[in-house]
Design a protein that fits this description.
By secondary structure, the protein is an alpha/beta fold. It contains 29 helices and 19 strands. The strands form five sheets. The chain has a seven-stranded parallel β-sheet. Strands 13-16-17-18-19 form a five-stranded mixed β-sheet.
């Protein structure tokens, strides 16, 4: 009673409990002859005890009778009962087992279409049911549209399966998990076109924001919007979104205000229903339980419903799903609020689910006059094995294969699966079949990087101005080069806020700190002459700038982790800055020095050369562009030193590395750029500087030999591609390769094709072993 009183106090004034509603009706039962007249209970197999006193009271003032199925519980009813005679089936029920719940849905739709196509049944005579519809709802929603059949969802469709429900889900996701650019973009895109205030913002205002930034606070959004307005004054009205973001940042407590800003019509109704049924903190759970009425009419449609609903309105042709050991009948679990030791289950629930499921099963089978199919899954949706229901004991079962050829296909795709000859005429299927055959053979095929000689797409990729990154991919993985720079494939970037940044981004962070620190010191007092204190001060200014601006440009970890990441990068940058190796006043230093840039490039600082001048690899057709990590140049141009920074620790035998099989090209290419871009013939020193662990500087002793080796390597790769062959590199199947997903997942493919790839790429393979 205490629980009931607590519920009553929290209910709206216009809502009553079932007990109170019954008592109010009992007080007015004398008006029943004029209001309702004779009462007929049709097809009900069970009446809840709470309503029985009202029905018994009605028997005293009006005529009440009951047409009940044979298995109905009518002992308490004192009026006339007419037992509905069970129908006689033309054949015994068919028992089948399917692979999983989705396969059950596929077979159900095939069965329904077969009944309609053969003329054995009309849609209004067909029903598909299960004790609980949740495991099959999503599959029926997706596949019924593909099948083109009118399917009526008696229990409604999940609200989250509609656009209105997705608007609510996007808003709930943002309120519960906080601001982020990805969540705001999703919510704004779903809410557009409803006549909201956001529709009056400048068109494509989100496109002006840096796509990679997380924007997890209102302050980040304010800075990003201010920067966008500085670049384009027409976006000034975008400031109107800031109060909206402040409301969203309040979290679940602002659910009401947020709904007024983003939801209208049915979306708002769904939201209000979700917030009435549970606290705002539980919005995700409450939204999952909301269902919407469908537009189809059960009178002219196949019906998909619960067994309880079908038992109350049976149909001639029935297919029952989920007849597994734990699904039908369902197990009665202990109530978490009133467990068995507090209140026995018999007193709490007069019609236990297990007993009700058995009764509904018998009622449905007794009323089916056409055909009955009893179906179960051999595995659950999670892949675990499930057994047969006790209701199927003594009935023989037919196991249905997922790949079987059906008597009636439910859709065009299903028909093509059933008719291989028809499928062979579809270009996409024919291409997929050819790819599957070629995957199993050892010789190289067009699916293994084989194409026409001088293919225009490959030629265009080779003729573009190359960077050190693209050149490294060309030499180490020709197939990956074609994918990335010919076809434009790339690995997707992480948009969510990460807990750490990648090694590549960490390297960029260190380089950014170095560039800003050296630019601060040059030309006055000059990096070479700057004291240790001045260097540290310049680095501190760079750290402060980067710490504030990077979160507006790309995904970074949460605040504390991001601060620690920047501090670690700053410690490595300080090692590089303090390792000057020169204190000559006549030496000028630069960082991040561009070369080979396009004609429209504008330098914002003094550089040692014109940055748009091109650099050509000798004896090849390759033009280069890039950015030198650090350049130290004497004012008389007699000597120059280029440094390529490495944030990691040096590998074993680092002193023997020249080009590292194509992985270490920067210092040689940077030295080549200095030779071609600086006046005269300066003495050139190219080196690697490892900052991780104990700092180590490695000079390239034979720059000319390294350049010649790179040129020969490039020509071999170009010849291979222009002849129409692109082979995967030696690290193509490594987990670190971000293009690994484009390769066959099975390691058997690599073993099967290894000999063929080795023969056709023998010329380039010899360079991969070069130090």
């Amino acid at each position: 009673m205490l629980i009931e009183e607590r519920i009553k106090r929290s209910m709206p004034k216009a809502v009553m409990t079932m007990r109170d509603l019954r008592d109010a009706a009992l007080q007015r039962v004398q008006y029943a002859p004029k209001l309702v007249g004779a009462v007929h209970l049709e097809g009900l197999s069970f009446v809840q005890p709470v309503w029985r006193p009202l029905i018994q009271a009605l028997q005293e003032v009006v005529e009440v009778d009951w047409s009940a199925p044979r298995d109905a519980e009518t002992d308490w009813f004192s009026g006339p009962v007419t037992t509905i005679a069970p129908s006689s089936l033309s054949a015994e029920p068919t028992v089948v087992s399917c692979a999983d719940p989705r396969h059950e849905v596929v077979e159900s739709l095939r069965w329904a279409r077969g009944l309609i196509a053969s003329g054995a049944a009309k849609p209004c005579e067909i029903a598909i049911a299960s004790p609980s519809t949740a495991p099959w709802d999503d599959h029926f929603l997706a596949l019924s549209a593909e099948a083109g059949l009118r399917l009526h969802f008696a229990q409604g469709i999940p609200a989250l399966a509609t656009v209105d429900g997705q608007r609510c889900a996007a808003l709930a996701d943002l309120l519960l998990r906080g601001l982020s650019q990805k969540r705001v973009r999703r919510l704004v895109s779903l809410s557009a076109g409803q006549g909201l205030g956001l529709d009056r913002l400048p068109e494509r205002w989100l496109a002006a924001l840096p796509r990679g930034s997380a924007l997890s606070t209102v302050q980040d959004w304010q800075r990003a919007i201010s920067d966008a307005i500085l670049n384009d004054s027409s976006l000034d009205r975008t400031r109107a979104v800031l109060p909206v973001l402040e409301t969203l940042a309040q979290g679940p407590s602002a659910s009401g205000k947020s709904a007024e800003l983003f939801l209208r019509g049915r979306s708002l109704q769904i939201w209000e229903a979700a917030t009435r049924s549970a606290p705002p903190e539980a919005l995700e759970l409450s939204l999952r339980n909301i269902r919407l009425a469908v537009e189809t009419d059960a009178a002219d449609s196949i019906v998909w419903c619960t067994a309880r609903d079908l038992a109350a309105a049976p149909r001639a042709h029935v297919r029952l799903l989920g007849l597994a050991n734990r699904s039908w009948p369902r197990n009665t679990s202990d109530d978490p609020v009133l467990p068995e030791h507090v209140l026995p289950a018999e007193e709490l629930d007069a019609d236990a689910v297990g007993r009700a499921d058995r009764r509904h099963f018998n009622v449905i089978l007794g009323a089916a006059s056409g055909s009955v199919v009893l179906s179960r899954s051999r595995r659950s949706s999670q892949g675990s094995r499930v057994g047969r229901s006790p209701l199927l004991q003594g009935r023989p079962e037919t196991a249905m294969s997922r790949a079987r050829i059906p008597e009636h296909a439910f859709s065009e795709a299903d028909r093509l699966m059933a008719r291989p000859a028809d499928a062979a005429g579809v270009d996409r299927i024919r291409a997929a079949e050819s790819c599957w055959r070629n995957w199993h053979v050892e010789p190289l095929t067009p699916h293994d990087g084989q194409f026409g000689t001088d293919h225009p797409l490959v030629v265009a990729a080779l003729e573009r101005v190359q960077s050190a990154t693209s050149l490294r991919l060309l030499l180490q993985d020709p197939l990956g080069f074609v994918w990335r720079y010919g076809l434009g494939w790339d690995a997707p970037e992480v948009r969510e806020q990460p807990l750490s940044i990648s090694a590549l981004d960490f390297g960029k962070l260190v380089h950014e700190l170095l560039r800003r620190a050296v630019d601060t010191l040059e030309p006055d007092p000059g990096y070479a002459k700057a004291s240790e204190g001045e260097t540290e001060e310049a680095l501190a200014a760079a750290v402060q700038f980067v710490r504030e601006t990077w979160p507006l440009q790309r995904p970074v970890p949460p605040t504390l982790l991001w601060a620690n990441t920047v501090d670690l990068a700053a410690s490595l940058a300080l090692v590089a800055l303090l390792r000057k190796d020169t204190n000559e006043a006549a030496t000028r230093s630069w960082t991040e020095v561009p070369f080979g840039q396009p004609d429209g490039f504008v330098a914002t600082r003094e550089l040692p050369w014109e940055p748009t001048r091109s650099v050509v690899v000798p004896n090849t057709s390759i033009k280069l562009r890039g950015t030198i990590d650090r350049l130290d140049l004497r004012r008389d141009l007699s000597a120059v030193r280029v440094t390529d920074y490495k944030t990691g620790s040096p590998p074993k035998n680092a002193g023997r590395i020249v080009i590292g099989g194509g992985s270490e090209l920067q210092r040689a290419l940077y030295g080549l750029a200095c030779r071609q871009l600086l006046e005269g013939e300066p003495q050139t020193v190219a080196r690697l500087l490892y900052l991780g662990g104990e700092p180590l500087a490695l000079k390239l002793h034979d720059l000319d030999g390294a350049i010649d080796l790179i040129g020969a390597f490039i020509n071999e790769a170009i010849t291979l591609l222009r002849q129409g062959t692109a082979i995967p590199g030696r690290l193509a199947f490594d987990r670190s390769n971000d293009l690994r997903l484009a390769l066959p997942a099975s390691p058997g493919y690599e073993r099967r094709k290894r000999i063929a790839f080795g023969k056709v790429g023998a010329g380039i393979c010899r360079f991969w072993s070069a130090s």
